[in-house]
Amino acid sequence: MKSLKELCADFDYEVLAGNMDGSYTEFVTDNRKLTPGCVYVCIKGANFDGHTCVGQAVEAKAALIVVEKPLSELSCPDTGDSTIIKVDSTRAAMAHISCAHYDYPADKLYTIGITGTKGKTTTTYLIRSILEQAGRKVALIGTIETIIGSEHTPAANTTPDSPVLQKLLRKVVDSGCDTVVMEVSSQGLMLHRTLGINFDIGIFTNIEPDHIGPNEHESFEQYIECKSMLFRQCKVGIVNADDEHIDKILKGCTCTVVKYGFKEGLDYSAANVRFVGSGSRLGMEFDVKGRANYPVRINMPGKFSVYNGLCAIAVCDQLGIEGETVRTAILSGHVKGRIEPVHVSDDFTLLIDYAHNSMALESLLTTLREYNPARLVCLFGCGGNRSRDRRFEMGEVSGRLADLTVITSDNPRNEEPLDIIADIRTGIDRTDGKYVEIPDRKEAIRYCIKNALPGDIIVLAGKGHEDYQEIRGVKHPMDERVLIAEIMEEENS
User: Fold this and answer.
1) Residue pair 223/207 in contact by the 8 Å Cβ criterion
2) Which residues have a Cβ under 8 Å from the Cβ of 422 and sit 6 or more positions away?
3) Segment 65-82, tens digit of pLDDT
4) How much is the mean pLDDT over the chain?
5) Are residues 398 and 358 in the same domain?
6) Residues 347 and 440 in one domain
7) What is the mean pLDDT of residues 367-391?
8) Secondary structure element (H or E) that encloses residue 471, with its range
9) What is the CATH number of the domain that holds 473?
10) Same domain as 321, residue 178
């Protein structure tokens, strides 16, 4: 175990009480886990401030207590045998301590971090698929899950808190992986969750107004600033040059910049882009131009899939992966719940997607329109205990872009499903869109399948990779893939 001085060697601090000559036993941020000899970092959250527990930490005989307030503001009349240090940011200190505590695992890996409003999840899976095809051992940390070897663990946060993240990275190293590809959220950057990691590659996919509000970002400008932090924390930045905010994203960057997009003359450009496929195999074909030159097909629909594929190609080309390996791997790349095809008939297309806000739904439906379906059918609901505006907006988007909307239930949580459906209807009524209401999600899916016409594209939106439905605080098993299989078995029996 490191000494206190070694543990805190990567950041500045002021000793308020005691000294840094000792050692420690463990590292905690939860006051309920205080033990003699531990290091306790006081974190101020939205609902609880760890600084209120300094006295408790002293009583527990913590070896080191890390604060960002002066002693006069702490309810701690006696510091006992504990050392107390003051820092500018306990979250930043926690990140550095986490790195040191787990012996800097990121330094032993090739690290790839991806930030952006959309495309992070798909791009991480594409990169992992290609690199594994090329023989690398790749771990993934993201919105859906963490993958280390054959172990898949559902994710709680897109980017975990620094102690959890560094513990995961230590596990990645110990498992024998040589590479990690991870999603880096703006919230994660703002809260210093990745501080201490010098990414080998940082990626920017795109940015649109999102995550603006209480407990997230106070403005779009702050959202951009947080995203841009990654490019002062990586060696090479691979960025979407077509995004209108790219100059702000790169402001103050300290990395070598590699650009991709549809424009000519970039490091990696997509040319001759074509919409291809039929049935459950909608996809895109394009030619890569620039530092790499070869044709590519990706079995995911839409121009945003070209961006995701091109980004993955740029990353893998930086690592010297041969074009033929990239082409083969990208063809088989897919992500659970992201425009995921489910084959039930050769006559129509059935897709599952995670789109659960108006921006994502508009992008999805606009993309599917470009395949000229006989009808575009959109099934969705909205989550309970969330903004009602989201329901109005999603209803309006689907009413405007889909030929038929099937309104159903999502995760009603503590609200009545019919009340949520009524709000969605209010949005659709602002348009001329046709709709039906079927609260039971399985029966709504059955309706879509039984009433499908040749050439239809049907998208089940909102649940994506989720395998549950949350009702009154209880998560009930519900996987749309399972529901579809059950429906097909019932209809064919």
Assistant:
1) yes
2) none
3) 999 999 989 888 889 999
4) 94
5) yes
6) yes
7) 95
8) strand 468-471
9) 3.90.190.20
10) yes
Contact 64, 85 (CB under 8 A): yes
Which pLDDT belongs to residue 202?
Answer: 98
Q: Check if the beta carbon of residue 469 is closer than 8 Å to that of residue 411.
A: yes
Which backbone phi and psi does 373 adopt, to 5 degrees? -70, 155
Do 183 and 308 reside in the same domain of the chain? yes
Contacts of 53 (CB under 8 A, 6+ apart): 31, 34, 40, 42
CATH code assigned at 16: 3.40.1390.10
90 and 219 within one domain: no
304 and 401 belong to one structural domain? no
Q: Are the beta carbons of 211 and 233 closer than 8 angstroms? A: no
Residues 61 and 118 placed together within one structural domain of the fold: no
For residue 432, name the pLDDT band (cuts at 50, 70, 90).
very high
The DSSP letter of residue 242 is T
Q: What residues pair up with 153 in beta bridges, in sequence order?
A: 146
Q: How confident is the model at residue 215 (pLDDT cuts 50, 70, 90)?
A: low
Kindly state whether residues 253 and 323 are assigned to the same domain: yes
Q: Which of 310, 332, 354 is the last residue of a domain?
A: 332
pLDDT (0 to 100) of residue 1: 72
Containing structural domain, residue 404: 340-492
What is the tally of structural domains in the chain?
3
Q: What is the dihedral of CA 195, 198, 204, 209, to 10 degrees?
A: 10
Q: Are 293 and 326 in contact (CB under 8 A)?
A: no
pLDDT at 286: 98
DSSP codes, 44-87 = B-SS-BGGGGHHHHHHTT-SEEEESS-GGGSS-S--TT-EEEE-
Residue 194: the pLDDT is 97
Which residue shows structure tokens 């019919």? 418
